[in-house]
Amino acid sequence: MRHLMSPLDFSVEELDRLFDLANDIEKNPKKYAHACDGLKMATCFYEPSTRTRLSFEAAMLNLGGSVLGFSDANSSSAAKGESVSDTIRVISCYADICAMRHPKEGAPMVAASKSRIPVINAGDGGHQHPTQTLTDLLTIRSLKGRLGDFTIGLCGDLKFGRTVHSLINALMRYEGIHFVFISPEELRIPDYITEKLKDAGITYEEVISLEDVMPKLDLLYMTRVQRERFFNEEDYVRLKDFYILTSEKMEKAKDDMLVLHPLPRVNEISVEIDDDPRAAYFKQAQYGVYVRMALILTLLDIKVA
Ligand code: NCD
Predict the structure, then answer these.
(1) Mutate to test the pocket of ligand 1, among 53, 263, 265, 283 (most ligand atoms within 8 A of CB)
(2) I want to staple 178 with a disulfide (CB 3.0 to 4.6 A). Which of 17, 78, 151, 216 is the partner?
(3) Which domains are assigned to the chain?
(4) What pLDDT does 78 receive?
């Protein structure tokens, strides 16, 4: 049985097959409408989410399956002190696959080790968010036609942003990637990640000014300052509006640069950018459903002829 804990759980070839499947689902949704008839997905969310949870639920419903679960730790038995190991043993009796989000790093991994059904890590603390990464990669591949030879800027909260950590891990496996890390001093990318890049001989730079690097970027991945992971509100308030992507800054960008964002957006992208053809973040949310459909089929080993 297979789980998904990190984007690296799939080889580059397996990812290509997954993305081909997601693109086929996009083109021929009807073909897949009954692929999961009679099957159930449990969404166990111990931390708030709209996008990721609803995206999983939409994916399972699009495949003809059903969904059950909880969206708040307080409304589950966790509030009574139940461990994730016990919860997943019970969920294994009710559902065929489970997507789990948890504020503690590693909790979905603990669940997977006790589970009789595939477990998908839907975000664990500041650690990983593999299905967002699959979404990001599918969006880039579909809109750019390739997954290598890019200068990619990652901007905002690079310290706490799990989507950033997962995406860097995944992109490291492709050729010709140059990373530009754009953040305030306090929210710099963790050393363990830059160490990995150095060991792998991958080039990167760390800057504070977004404006200065705009002209060289092929992709710009904006992120929200992760308020819930700050130790004090004052620091959050000081840093929350450090970056705001405006039309003026977009004028400095390449004509075919893509702006990505895992969402939710707060202030970091001005709404005036939404109509710019380079703004890809809402398309990204749509690709998130296709890739989760492809993932469910892959983990449940369901082939649609
Ligand atoms: C991200 C997350 O949960 O880490 N959101 C998402 O899954 N789409 C990003 C965020 O919350 O900023």
Answers:
(1) 263
(2) 151
(3) 7-128+288-299 (3.40.50.1370), 131-285 (3.40.50.1370)
(4) 78
